[in-house]
Amino acid sequence: MHSSLRLSAMVTLLFLIGIALSNASIVRGSTLTTVTVPAAFREGNDFATRVLGDPWDMSSYGDISHYLNESGQRKLVVNPTVANGVFSGTSFGSASTTGSPYFFPLFPGYKGESDLDPVSIPVTDRIGYNYPIPSATNHCLYVSLNSQSSSSDYMWVLWFADRTLNISPDRYGGTYVQLYPGGGAPFWQVIKVDLAATPPLIPNTNQSWTSHAQWQGLRIDPTTTAAGTNFAVDWVRLTDCTALNQTISWTPDASVTSIWLQPVGTTRNIRLVTGLNGASGTASVDFQGVAAGSYYVGMGTTTSCCSQMSAQPITINLAPTGKFVTPSYTSGVDYATQAGNSWDFDPGRTDGNVIQFTSGTPLATATYDGNGMLLTTPSGPLPAGVDVAINLNTPQAIDPNAYRYLTVDMETSWVAPWENIPDAMIGRWIWATLGTSGNPGSHCTMVGPDIPYDIGRQQMTVDLFSTLSGNAEDREGECAGGTLSWRTGQVLTTRFDPNENISILADPTTGGGPLIQRIRSIQLNKPNTVNKSSGTYVISLGLNKDPSLVNTSFYYTTTTASPTQYPALAMSPPADMPNKVYLPLIQRAGVAQATSGNMKYFSWDLSTVPLGTYYICAVLNDGLNSQTSCSMVPITVQ
Prior knowledge:
By secondary structure, this protein is mainly beta. The chain folds into 4 domains: 27-43 and 243-317, Sandwich (Immunoglobulin-like); 47-239, Jelly Rolls; 322-326 and 528-637, Immunoglobulin-like, CATH 2.60.40; 335-525, Jelly Rolls, CATH 2.60.120. It has 5 helices and 42 strands.
């Protein structure tokens, strides 16, 4: 009897504990956790992820910094900041006054002195000149935006055919979206625009998205109607419009009209879709416009979240991406290394690098700490600033028909980034050949086109064989007439100018501060070659995730338009696999960037490969996403 009572009491106690635990499990803060979400699924087909290898997820300044504030020539975005995966700023004016704030997810590149004269473009940078958007296949735009503006405010989207931007009316177009047509306090939302669905065009623009086969520039104005408007952007995605539908269910509630997302680790709620029938308790939701990551899913009204929230987050799987280390721009023979003294600014030996400062007071300073050269250059309009030249050690003449790729690994910082640097952040490559007289010591010195760069660390590569990058912009000394280029004759001396040092703000009275640059290395490389008789070539690929999680199949091809043309056969890897990365793989800090810690090696069997020049491609599959990456340069089997 007493035993039965004790058993009954224990059952009752366990029941009450179960109720308490059950109640605890459905409460997250003050919100009911009654939303059911799917397991992990793949991310949508995003242009920046698949083509550039780095999504516009606001994880680094590189997602928005190209031409921000027109490289300092106008004040449009006040206090631009990128932190914790969000780009934020404040409008200085409006579209009808001094101009609305804007940023370029994809910038076409800088033009030169005339409208059609291009500035040299770093070939490894994420610029639309090299990576245009196919208008037919990529036209669904998604922007996760919070603009602290009124219901009458608009977001603008503009597209540009080339680096001339809006100079010619037949080379650009744009559309607009009202931000909060329903009124209410501003909130985070994912704004979708089908650019190909003939949306209304911005006045004075006449080119629809489908009027050109491709676009080199994409610009977003997050607010347009008032000065002093704060805004924030979480991500921008441009997809192929392929739906990525997932089923979401919740406790039926007629007041529910919208689905919201809360990125894990944050408190911001982002409205994804609206117009739901809350009483149905279920909906098929398209997630193609959501950046990879983990999110709690909430149910709410059109303007607020949330009456219900999922207990567990959904996970949108980050697509695997890769960047080839071999073959690459820097994996061919390097001139300075083969000459016996690489341009790595090693303080432990005499590189023969001479830092030359011309004009200006005070002088720039250079120090060496084992991690390259740290250069500090006072800024300001010349002659207040300092012009800096790095004369590189050139112990033997350079065959310009053999050495093709110039690569500079440099990191730049400034007190007032973007706002006041119209021309300072431009580098130049300068070289000299024997003068026309042929006399010893006579030189023809040639100046290459501008090499624009950005705040942060970049690995900039210039193809000196191209007319765009290799033709001389200026000359001095005993020079022949006509067009001069890198391939004009044997190169006797080389020089790199790390900055043009022409900035609106002088140093230090107006607060501009000096330009601080760390130059880790400069390389001048031959194209990649391998002798067939060697039997094998080791391909190395940096991935954005653990290689053990990615199934990788390698191919070789004569054109990247057909990436799986020929399967690459594997040989058994050598006992001591090389583990040397010539230059950092991280060009931009971001979750989708390949890193040197995630290397995949493949020993390519050359025995059945015909002599020829091939790109190397890899099909990457992590079980949810499949994606193809190809080398930026080919390798010649000879």
